[in-house]
# Entry
Amino acid sequence: MRNAPGDERIGAAATFGLLAAWALHDTEELVALPRWLRRNVPALRERFPAVPEAVWRRAESVDEREFAVAVAVMAAIVTAASTAGRLTGGRSAFYQSALNGFGLHGLVHLAQAAAVRGYTPGSATSPLLVIPFTLWARGRLRRAGVLRPTSPRDAALGLAAAAAATVASHAVARRVLGRRFR
# Structure
């Protein structure tokens, strides 16, 4: 007999699966990003002259150590969100926002790859893992009756939260490594 809507349990696959999917995706970024930036920023600077010079300088200053520490900080954030999701049966607003932000950031990776007309770190796992996992997990939440209605405002907030977590992760990494902010 099938459970009634709302009775279906949200298991570890949908909650801690966020952490697993994030870890695989960020492994791609960890391996590729610092070298990709060093190799591509000069051409991107010429191609996109409207981007402020400070953005290009900041991108060029990210090295393997800083990026690894930032990824570790983000791991703590995603672990907390996944744990909140598991403990609340998927009802946690923090978990659901993190899930939405994860999926939307996958779309950002695809937009970046389209803008540069080629590979960008994160664009390989986004269509294969990030977006499918997010859609699958949201489907599980919906079938269980615990998915909060998502408005365009909620989507924008999820993406803004993902961006803020990224900025905060890099700020912590720079502080841990004793680097100045530029």
